[in-house]
Amino acid sequence: MKMTFYGQFVAGEDQEAIKPLIRRNQAFGVGAVLDYSVEEDLSAEEAERKELDSCTSAAEKETGGAERREKQYRAHRGFGDRRGGVISARTYFYADEAKCDQHMETFLRCIDASSGSSVDGFSAIKLTALGRPQFLLQFSEVLVKWRRFFHQMAAEQGQAGRAALEMKLEAEKLQEALANLGIATKAESQHWFTGENLGVSGTVDLLDWNSLIDSRTKLSKLLLVPNMQTGQLEPLLSRFTEEEELQMKRMLQRMDTLAKRATEKGVRLMVDAEQTYFQPAISRLTLEMQRRFNRDRAIIFNTYQCYLKEAYDNLTVDVELSRREGWHFGTKLVRGAYMEQERERAAQIGYEDPINPTYEKTNEMYHRCLDYILEEIKHSRKANVMVASHNEDTVKFTLRRMMELGIHPSEKKVCFGQLLGMCDQITFPLGQAGFPVYKYVPYGPVNEVLPYLSRRAQENRGFMQRANRERDLLWREFKRRLLAGSFFSPNH
Q1: Spatial distance between the Cα atoms of 143 and 222, rounded to a whole number of angstroms
Q2: Nearest CA among 78, 91, 85 for reference residue 38
Q3: Could you tell me whether strands 169-170 and 203-204 are parallel, antiparallel, or unpaired per DSSP bridges?
Q4: CA 20 to 30 Å from 140, out of 29, 170, 285, 480?
Q5: Which residue from 338, 277, 448 is spatially nearest to 87, judged by alpha carbons?
């Protein structure tokens, strides 16, 4: 097994076993993003049962109140097994708090291994491994409803169709709306719209609005949403048990522990993106970590999925916040790993497909987001991006824009990333040319990474096409050297 599929896509069983491969790659200028890829080998039925149980609150189980929640942010039978249609991303299912603690310990060991085996390394984590997904679902729904409320108010002020950062709300009208919803009287909200919270010309933009939400104290009290029909502010759930409050806090504490260890060890922490019904919460929690830990350098990296229609709006709003507050923005740009599953779920459950309509539109989105970040690097040198792509055109686009904008590879503001075992014809030339480039390095015991590997095997057709391309490139180089009489010369 180790000589076949495992050896192609997995670096080794533990942090000692992976060191030879990491050292070998480093000799060619290639770093590592360590990713402990162990998964539980659950049947589809077990996975669905765990998911439905862990995504539903105690109150909803008693009263059936989940039906009042938005369809997109509820667990649904038939989509409980989140591994369906997903190839390269590992998946965690909630068992209990002790299991989340075990995952945290695993991630801590991964951070230590990254620190011990490479300079300027990365370690990858998933937030669904660190807590009950019920919280991510609920928090995502709250964030989306508040943003929708903001957009609705902007539309009422004649600003429909504008980009997120271009929307400005008149403070006076916003105060009236807040008073009508019973959120705060005009007198109470007066101080919210002074000083740094006040936008240009007495208006408030989306980031100021997010700051208002931040100040809403306890986590359970944060899960309040505006009901535009009744004109009231309502709790998303009728009540939270004490245990649910603790579970939410423990997830944040685990994130904090990992961020502190990464900071101590000088390892950058990559927070992977997940499904759209979890992602608003994942992005927001990652942003909160960035605000705290990215003061001096980019330690925490958020991931933006460019197959999403809202990718550019999400990215630009977050970059603007980093500008205003003066911290270092870190991002990994991907196209996305859950397209097939997301499309099917949206169609069957009945909500708008969040994915761009075509592959070409996704490419446009990727390059648009990337260009925005590269421009930000040029202007402030406080942004950092990993171009996580196997697409040669995207890599060429990045190299061309770096040259045009005067971003030198030695600044290490732009790096590249590919999966271990794939696209070596991109990775190693970049490394040898002095560009920061990394392999995503999965590792773990053979029997425990089999679930991950079995899904990677589904990619076999695409992998073989890429392998054929690499073979053709090697054959072309072989013939060139043979005809040039320089086959044994390392200098040609």
Answers
A1: 10
A2: 91
A3: antiparallel
A4: 170
A5: 338
Q: What share of the chain is helix, strand, coil (3-state, %, to 5)?
A: 55, 10, 30
DSSP one-letter string for 120-147 = T-EEEE-GGGSS-HHHHHHHHHHHHHHH
User: For the segment 197-247, what is each residue's pLDDT rounded down to a tens digit?
Assistant: 444 444 455 444 454 444 444 455 555 666 666 656 665 555 567 777 778
Q: What is the Cα–Cα distance from 47 to 41, expressed in whole angstroms?
A: 9
262/460 Cα distance (integer angstroms): 35
Residue 230 backbone phi and psi in degrees, to 5: -90, -15
Distances (CA, A) of 371 to 203, 261, 355, 392, 407: 28, 32, 20, 16, 12
List, as one string, the DSSP characters of 362-413. Answer: HHHHHHHHHHHHHHHHHHHS-EEEEEE---HHHHHHHHHHHHHHT--GGG-S
Whether 192 and 201 have beta carbons less than 8 Å apart is answered as no
Q: Where are the beta strands (DSSP E) in 61-132?
A: 122-125
What is the chain's Cα-based Rg? Answer: 24
Cβ contact 122:34 at 8 Å: yes
Q: Inform me whether the pLDDT recorded for 454 exceeds 80.
A: no
The per-residue pLDDT for range 236-245, each reduced to its tens digit, is: 555 567 777 7
* Measured distance CA(281)–CA(302) in Å, rounded: 12
Angle at 65 between CA 74 and CA 279, to 5 degrees: 25
Q: Report how far apart, in Å, the C-alpha atoms of 301 and of each of 140, 309, 318, 359, 362 are.
A: 19, 21, 12, 25, 21
Q: What is the pLDDT of residues 155-181, one digit of tens each?
A: 777 877 777 777 777 777 777 877 776
3-state secondary structure of 204: strand
Distance CA 318, CA 244 (A): 29
Q: Does 480 or 267 have the greater pLDDT score?
A: 267
Largest CA distance in the chain: 84
Q: What is the pLDDT of residues 90-122, one digit of tens each?
A: 788 888 899 999 999 999 999 998 887 777 889
Compute CA 327 distance to the chain's CA centroid, rounded to the nearest angstrom.
18
Neighbours of 275 (CB within 10 A): 25
182 versus 439: which is more confidently predicted? 439
Apex 189 CA angle, 188 and 193, nearest 5: 140
Angle between helices 133-156 and 171-180 (to 10 degrees): 120
Instruction: For residue 204, give both structure tokens.
Output: 């408030």
Q: Which CA distances in Å does 105 have to 4, 109, 112, 190, 377?
A: 30, 6, 11, 46, 34
Phi and psi at 467, nearest 5°, equal: -65, -40
Averaged pLDDT for residues 253-271: 94
Instruction: Tell me the C-alpha to C-alpha distance, in Å, between residue 252 and each of 132, 227, 400.
Output: 11, 28, 40
Half-sphere CA count of 208, side-chain side, radius 13 A: 23
